[in-house]
């Protein structure tokens, strides 16, 4: 029987501090979500470039100055992480987002287009969440599986967890679609500063709502199966069997 075929052990006599203890499970879930989505610092790195762009543009209506400031602060955030030897994935995603926005705005000469790549990305991400959830391979599970050290074990061995990931993916998709339903009409009807301030205001609340719902669904789900620990245990067992076989041969 392989590790993929083994049933997950369960017990009704869990004590606080046991691996399956609900309190421990919630704590692990919180830590994993914090790591996956960047926490407070990641949110600041997501909001700050756009906030700086719309602030400067509101004051002087200078597209070039606003774009340079947004790019500069994005690069500075990456530099700080590099100096501190922190993970740079969230800061780099901000750089790419700002970079595409600046290119669009400079090409068209319309400052409003600074926001268009990010809006299209949000729409694409919402679609991906909904499509993958409907297909039985929820995107949030693909994102969080490695963080929880369960990889894709939730797909075949942990149906309760798969259900939670599916609910969370639907939640993310619907929340992002609602955000798009607000932003795209504003892109056509509002001016740059109005769109910019609304977009900045909608950066954090929908994200926090989606993360909170993900935590709610996962906190009630079965604990993740640590496939890495299973593989290590199997390797140790195999080494023990080989050692025993060698000892039998010598005797």
From TrEMBL:
The lineage of its organism: Bacteria, Bacillati, Actinomycetota, Actinomycetes, Kitasatosporales. Pfam families: DUF3159. Residues 1-25 are annotated as: Disordered. This is DUF3159 domain-containing protein. The chain crosses the membrane at residues 63-83, 90-108, 128-148, 169-189, 195-218. Keywords: Membrane, Transmembrane, Transmembrane helix. Residues 13-22 have a biased composition (Low complexity). It comes from the Bacteria. InterPro entries: UCP010219 (IPR016566). Residues 1-12 have a biased composition (Polar residues).
């Amino acid at each position: 029987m392989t590790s993929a075929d083994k049933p997950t052990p369960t017990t009704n006599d869990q004590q606080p501090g046991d691996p399956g203890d609900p309190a421990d499970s919630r704590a692990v879930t919180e830590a994993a979500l914090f790591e996956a989505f960047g926490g407070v610092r990641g949110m600041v790195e997501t909001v700050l470039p756009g906030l700086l762009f719309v602030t400067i543009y509101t004051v002087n209506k200078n597209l070039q100055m606003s774009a340079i400031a947004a790019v500069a602060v994005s690069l500075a955030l990456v530099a700080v992480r590099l100096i501190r030897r922190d993970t740079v994935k969230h800061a780099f995603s901000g750089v790419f987002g700002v970079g595409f926005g600046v290119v669009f705005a400079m090409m068209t000469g319309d400052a409003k287009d600074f926001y268009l790549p990010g809006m299209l990305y949000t729409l694409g991400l919402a679609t991906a969440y909904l499509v993958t959830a409907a297909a039985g391979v929820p995107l949030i599970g693909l994102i969080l599986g490695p963080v929880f050290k369960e990889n894709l074990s939730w797909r075949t061995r942990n149906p309760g967890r798969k259900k939670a990931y599916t609910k969370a993916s639907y939640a993310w998709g619907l929340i992002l679609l609602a955000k798009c339903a607000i932003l795209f009409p504003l892109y056509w009807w509002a001016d740059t500063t109005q769109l910019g301030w609304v977009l900045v205001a909608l950066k954090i609340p929908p994200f926090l709502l989606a993360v909170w719902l993900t935590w709610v669904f996962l906190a009630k789900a079965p604990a993740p199966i640590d496939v890495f620990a299973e593989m290590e245990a199997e390797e140790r067992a195999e080494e023990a069997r080989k050692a025993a076989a060698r000892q039998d041969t010598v005797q």
